């Protein structure tokens, strides 16, 4: 293969990769993405409200279908595991198991919260594009006259945004869950395997722990 041909081929491959990367950026603005996710979930909850009473599995199914696909569980896992997410403290298999368990318990947490949903509405706060890597979009949910701010921290996954962390009423859930996980490790005598098997993030406790 002559040098000119190799240079031409290399330039062609590089330009294709750069073009693919450019076109892989999320097409939606962060507020539009969060609004789409919120509207889709709330619409299902309102439509199926009568069916959801005393039916936690139905609620979890709706959360799994309408919220779970937009959660970046890998990023959330790293936040919650903290230093335990590094090779020094855990194996790839342990981190994968934690992610599976954590994803399922998150669905249970959100399912319990949304089971109480009736006619809550929300408003989208003006968006300030201050962090292009991890933009934050805040919604104010109104429940029985009380406003509850919920901020979604996003991450660019190439073709779409995903949610990497959530802040409720000023409480960083990722950091609160990290504290809960560290306490679980301690209760299990430092055994990471036991802590992973027994860890149940508690969103209510996290939000009320002010």
TrEMBL record:
Q: What is this protein called?
A: Phospholipid transport system substrate-binding protein
Q: Domain of life of the organism in this record?
A: Bacteria
**Species of origin:** Acinetobacter albensis
* Matches recorded under Pfam families: MlaC
Asked if the Swiss-Prot or TrEMBL record annotates the protein with the keyword ATP-binding, the reply is: no
Tell me the first and last residues of the signal peptide.
1-24
Keywords for this protein? Signal
């Amino acid at each position: 293969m002559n040098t000119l041909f190799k240079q031409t081929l290399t330039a062609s491959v590089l330009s294709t990769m750069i073009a693919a990367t450019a076109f892989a950026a999320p097409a939606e603005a962060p507020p539009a993405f969060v609004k789409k996710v919120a509207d889709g979930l709330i619409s299902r909850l309102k439509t199926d409200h009568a069916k959801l009473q005393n039916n936690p599995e139905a609620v979890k199914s709706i959360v799994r279908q309408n919220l779970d696909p937009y959660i970046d569980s890998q990023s959330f896992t790293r936040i919650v595991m903290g230093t335990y997410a590094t090779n020094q403290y855990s194996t790839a298999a342990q981190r994968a198991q934690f992610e599976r368990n954590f994803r399922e318990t998150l669905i249970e947490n959100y399912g319990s919260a949304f089971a109480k949903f009736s006619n809550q509405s929300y408003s989208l706060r003006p968006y300030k594009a201050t962090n292009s890597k991890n933009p934050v979009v805040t919604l104010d949910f109104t429940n029985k006259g009380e406003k509850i701010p919920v901020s979604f921290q996003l991450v660019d996954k190439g073709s779409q945004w995903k949610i990497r962390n959530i802040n409720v009423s000023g409480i960083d859930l990722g950091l609160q869950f990290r504290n809960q996980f560290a306490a679980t490790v301690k209760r299990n005598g430092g055994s990471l395997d036991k802590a992973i098997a027994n860890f149940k993030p508690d969103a209510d406790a996290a939000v009320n722990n002010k």
